[in-house]
């Protein structure tokens, strides 16, 4: 496993064996692992998905409702809140 100095997640090489530090062999899939619950994230947007996932562990809610004190961990959740609670389409 490689620890990422910039973020708190780890790169995990998976397959039949672990590989030494460096570039994995061609065709080896790379995933990111949540350091809290060990959930794996794959695919093109794995860093973004892990970032959003980490908000569930930290309780971070960076999106504020402009009409009330409600806060959300994702913009999509805030849009649903505004539409259902305030009847506005933004």
TrEMBL record:
Localization per Swiss-Prot or TrEMBL: Nucleus
Keywords: DNA-binding, Metal-binding, Nucleus, Repeat, Zinc, Zinc-finger
Molecular-function GO terms, alphabetical: DNA-binding transcription factor activity; RNA polymerase II cis-regulatory region sequence-specific DNA binding; zinc ion binding
Gene: ZNF536_11
Domain of life of the organism encoding this protein: Eukaryota
GO cellular component, one term: chromosome
Chain ranges of the C2H2-type domain: 32-62
UniProt name for this protein: Zinc finger protein 536
Record GO biological process: positive regulation of DNA-templated transcription; regulation of transcription by RNA polymerase II
């Amino acid at each position: 496993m490689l620890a990422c100095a910039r973020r708190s997640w780890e790169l995990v090489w998976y397959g039949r064996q672990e590989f030494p530090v460096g570039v994995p062999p061609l065709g080896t899939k790379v995933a990111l692992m949540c350091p809290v619950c060990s959930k794996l994230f794959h695919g093109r947007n794995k860093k973004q998905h892990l970032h959003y996932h980490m908000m569930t562990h930290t309780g971070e809610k960076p999106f504020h409702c402009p009409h009330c004190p409600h806060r959300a961990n994702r913009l999509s959740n805030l849009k649903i809140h505004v539409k259902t609670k305030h009847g506005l389409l933004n």
